[in-house]
Design brief:
By secondary structure, the chain is an alpha/beta fold. 39% of the residues lie in helices and 15% in strands. Helix 8 (195-206) links the parallel strand 5 (183-191) and strand 6 (211-219). It binds zinc ion.
Length: 233
Amino acid sequence: MATLQTWARRAPLRGLIDLAMPPHCALCGEMGAWLCTACSDAILALRQARQAALPAPPGIATLAAVAPHRGLVRRVVHQLKYGGMRVLAAPLAELMMTACPHALAQIDLIVPVPLHPRRIRRRGYNQAVLLAEALAACSGRAASLDLVERTRDTRSQVGLSRSARQANVDGAFAVRQALAGERLLLIDDVCTTGATLSACAIALREAGASHVTALTLAWAERYRAPTSRNDAV
Ligand SMILES: [Zn+2]
């Protein structure tokens, strides 16, 4: 039986094999596009009444996401993040723009949540950067892909409790230049507890951003935002 490590090593290779073929839907295999219309519509259909009002964690004014992190959404995030399918960033950014147009209103700059360089070397890319770049291209907004850096190589958040996640990312981000009241849109793939988005947004606010909106592809179904900084810790 393949171990998790074996599978993880094979996944990028599988992505390369996929990319050698003509465009086909990463979810159903339909030829013609990396994410077909039927699968895009199915993802949008997963949106619920809750999506309009996700509670925002500290540092973030508004939090928006396309759909809950399950089923097709979980699979497509996995393909983007671990399957080497960078080509999914463009159709997924379009989905983000279609589903959450309000998140892009009155924004000066799109900013991705950074990964530590060591993790980028391991994975080959940062999926949040790919999404931010694609979102800038399809929305016409400016993006700063390296405004924030991850100064600590925090352990993976997977499997950590809410308080452990918060402690894991507190102070893990540094902003490379002073900001002057810009309104930012912070991008990540999944909002699980909001701890990473929150730590990153707080660093941006401390650097001078006037307003941070966050937009992710998915939110964890168990997500509930802390109501204050103290709750988060
Ligand atoms: Zn499809």
